[in-house]
Every structure is written in structure tokens, then in C-alpha cells.
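for the record, two folds in this file. i put them one after another cuz i was lazy. first one right below, seq on top, C-alpha cells after. the second one comes after a little note so u can tell where it starts
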Amino acid sequence: MRTIDDHEHQIRALVGPALAARPVESLVVDPARMAADPAAYRDRRLASAVVAPLDLPPFANSQMDGYAVASAELQAGGTRLVVADRIPAGRAAPRLQPGQAAPIMTGAPMPPGADAVVPIERAEPDVFPAEGAEAHVELPGPVAPGTFVRAAGSDVPAGTVLFEAGTTLTPARWGVLASAGLTRVDVVRRPRLLVVSTGEELSAPGTALAEGRIHDANGITLTASLLEVGVDVVVERVSDDAAVLQAVVARHADDVDLVVTTGGVSAGAYEVVRDAFEGAGVVFGSVAMQPGGPQGWGTVTVAGRELPIVCFPGNPVSTLVSFEAFLRPALQAATGAGLPRRRSVAAMAEAADSPVGKHQLRRGELDADGRVRLIGGPGSHLLTSHAAATLLVHVPVGVGRVEEGDEVVVWALHD
């Protein structure tokens, strides 16, 4: 049997090239468009480098409310100057004449002839005179050229690479793009995955259950997990009919980058995923883990296209544990969405048994003392226990029992 690490590397190698070859799409740099379709803008990665088309800021401007001055005119002990016209933000500034100080607001352009700003708090009087009134102001000195002035290009000079290809666009980075005057930006299309729940026993959530049937939890748990890592999802459900499963995959093959199935991968008599794809490029085997041992992986050829497929077991906890161990890392590497799961070491608050030949992943939480307390048993059907847990607790191959106080590796189940 394969180890967890071996299989995780195998899945990365399988899906990585398909996820890296996604096409490019364009987004408008506009807050109204973003507000109208927030999902389209969340966690997007640049398809190519973006270069600043102009200086940021595009002109020298005041960092403070104060007086724009020629620094050479301010002498030690104070200098009395004539108050010129006000310079508000958003207007062109007239030239500052010798012997003048111009009231200037934060962000307003520096007038020609001025090279420094004295904050209003340091002026005498320390309030601006009425607009248009003849007035003088006493300013301390000396001041150095450039004092409280934001020089043109001091954030980014024109021609600078703002962001490299592959950069994830955060709120601040969207702001930089808007500041640079860009109207559109090319991003890599999100990965698109087809999720197929399989099994004759599955019914849609909310429907009345016939005898022997259960509601399908895997479709929605996997979809929720995939949305967390920036993936677009198409969801299907099929019974134990290999031809139907093959037809569903073929119908979506042109529109998705990867197929993920749940169920039908063990050694029973009605293993629909094995029946559909074994011998057609998909390998089925076991990983030395509990839950989640049976796994499938490979590519299927559909209409001349090689489409990667990852096949998880059908019990809901097995599905979620398999996603965390194998698929989440590869998808986050491709999308940059979400935070990698935190991994740490903590002491057990209780003893627990584990199958020696399996890497067991139990569900748990940290108690008030920071020790690991298990939630529920090891069964792969205990989805409610998994929902209550905050950690995956690792008991490695070769360990048949952990005692209270033993240290174990834990993975956080939430960012």
C-alpha cells in the first residue's frame, strides 16, 4: 500500500499540468462590476505581468494640510509670508510667487515654485484665513526640500512591474490596478471540476427516502470544500451504471479540467467507478490510511482529450479526509485561494488505539489546556463527529496505541 505522502505527490503530479494550462479571461477594474459579481473577482490570479503605465502618484502632492512654500525662503527664527490662494485636492495649482505661502490640502498638487509643506499646526496663526482674504502667516524654518511632499512616482515609477504573472489579486492589489488607471486585467480562468457522486443508494437531499437509500452528502461537502479553494464546480449524481457514468464524464469533458468521483472504488460487486474506468487509464489501489484507504487516479481519454480523474471512496468522512490529504494542496497551489491548513504538534488528552498497519486520521479538538481530545470514533460514516471537529489527528503507520501525554501531529480543519 502507498503512504499518504506518496499519494499526495502522485495527485499533485496528475492534476498540476491540467490546472496550469487554463485559459485566460479578462476582468473589468471597476468596483460596481465587482459588487455586482463578487464571486468572479474573488481570489483571482494574474495571467501575465502588469506594468505601471504612469507614475504613482502621478504628480507631486502634499502629505499634509498646511502651507506650500519654497524651502529656501524659510529662515531660522521664522519667516513672514503673504498667504496665496488655497489649493484644494483635485485642482491644478497656480505658480507660487516669491514671498508667498499657499494653503494646501492633503493630496493637492504642489504648485510650481514650491518644494516643501509646513503643517498648519506649525503656522502662526494655526488656522487658514478666510478664502480670498488678504493675510500673512508666520512659518518656522528652516525646512528641507521635499518635507511633507509625496514626489511623483514615489510609490511606483512608470514602467515598473506592478505584479508578476501568477500574483493573487488582494484588495490592496486591486486598488493599485485602479490607481494606475487600468481598465481591464487578464486573469487565469478558475479551475473547473466535475464532481460525481456514485451509488444506487443515493438520493438527493430533501427527497423522501425509499428503503435502503440514503441522502447524498458527498456532493455538497465536496462542492463546499472546492469553493473554499477557488474552484468552479459542476455536480452530478449517478447510479451503479458504468455506461451512465462514462456518458456524464463525456458530456462535461470539454468544459472541465478535472473529474472527482466518490464511491465505487473498492472491491465489491457494484463498484461503478472501477467498472467504468479501470483499464482505461485509471489505477485503483490502497493508501495505508484510515479512513480513505481505497483510491483511484489517472487519466481518461474523452474525444481525444486526456482528462485527469481522482476517485475517492464513498463514505463521507473518507471523502473529506481524502480531499484534505490529497486534493486541497494541489488546488491551493493552482489558485492561491484560502490559507494552507495549519499543521502542528500537540499532546494527547486521552489514550487511543490505532491499526498498526494504517496511518489513522481521527477527528478531534484542543481542550482548554491545549491537549488533543478525540471527537467520535474512527468510523468513516461519522460525519456529524467530523463536523464538530477542528482537527485531524494523525497516528502514523506502526503505532498501535497512543497514550495520554503522547505528542501527535494535528492538521487544522479550518483556516
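(here's the note) second protein begins now
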Amino acid sequence: MSDGRDPIRAAQANMRQPTVRRFYKSVGVREAEGGGFELTLDGRAARTPGRNKLAAASRALMQRVAEEWGRQGETVDPADMPLTRLLNSAIDGVAGAMEETRADIAGYAGSDLLCYRAEAPEALAERQRLAFDPILAWAAEALGARFNLAAGVIHVAQPPEALAAVRAALDAVDDPAALAALSVITTLTGSALLALAVARGFLTSAEAWRVAHIDEDFQTEQWGVDEEAKARRAIRWREME
């Protein structure tokens, strides 16, 4: 992002925070002044690293955040609180950079993972076709976005109408938490279309994750498991989930 308020980097920075001793006993969720719901610790409003109230429009989201805080033991481990980190990023970063965040996500549509196909081997090309084509068909029907396909890694320009349709779908997302989630999914999968398919309920997060790793899984079948890559993928899946 042009002003440095990248919600992905903000989430990663929060994840790297060291553990601290648990400083509260009770966790709750209550209606916030002006609407929405906020997290409380020992009856007081919880704060983000930017000193904003930890709140969201969705009660269900805040209940999940409260569960993260409630399950902490003697220490508070940010790595065990992915929704809290996401919401922190949404409040401290995305909320003040909605247009920039939308533009970042839309940028992925110009070279979306689903539009680039292997020429060989045929087995991989067929797997891609079976996994990618239904999502592109959904994008055409649900978003009005029809994309061009490319063989290999040579860039192919996408129709301006398709890119505009993706941007229109993103413009309709006015909740910073939802937009932050879209940003995270897009970055983790390399696909704005996969992120929108999850947001619209066409795919589950697990289905989108599988589609995003068609190539990697095929290579693993051919050459075996890379344990370091497997560990990195497990961490990234936790963020996706």
C-alpha cells in the first residue's frame, strides 16, 4: 500500500509480539456506544495496539475474539489469537485506508492465479481446469467478470470490464474487518477471485486453500514432501482459516 499501512504486514507484526502474562480475569462482549460490539476485559473496554477500542459490527465475530482471549492461560500468546490480530489490523490499519486496501486486492485480479495454466504435464493442466474453471464460471455469473486465460507465465491483459466488476464487488464491502479478511485471503492464495468466492459463500476456506495449492500438491506427489515448506504452509493455513 502506498502509505505503508499494509494490513497483512500489520497482522504479521502483531503475530511476532512476544507473549505476556495474562493481566485480566474475565472476558466479555457488550454493545458499544454508537453501535457494534466491543470486547471487555474485567469490565473495561479492550484496546488495540493503536489504542483504539477493540470492536466490530458483528457480535458473532466479537464472540469468537472473546473466545481467543478467554482460552489464554498464564500468558497471552498473540500467535494463538488470529482473529484478534486480524481485527487489530482492520481497526488500526484498514479502517483508515479502505480505498488503498480495495485497490491492493483488485490489483491481484489483473494477474489472478486462476488465469494462468500449465501447458504440461497434462495431468496438472487437467487438475487446474477442473479446479479453476468452475470458479471462473461463478465469477462470470455472480460478478459479471469474464477473464482471459494464459498458458504458462506470460502475462495476459484482462478485459477492463472484468477488472471493473471485481472492483465493484470490493467497493460493496464497507466493513473494515471483512475487507481485512479479503486482503489476507487474497495475499495468501494469490487470487482475488478465490477471496471473493469465499466471501460470497461459493467456496469454503478449505476449498479455496486446496485450489490455491493445486500446483504445489502436484509437485509434492512427484518429488516428495519438503518438511520446511510443509511447516510454512501450516502456519499460513492457520491465518487463512
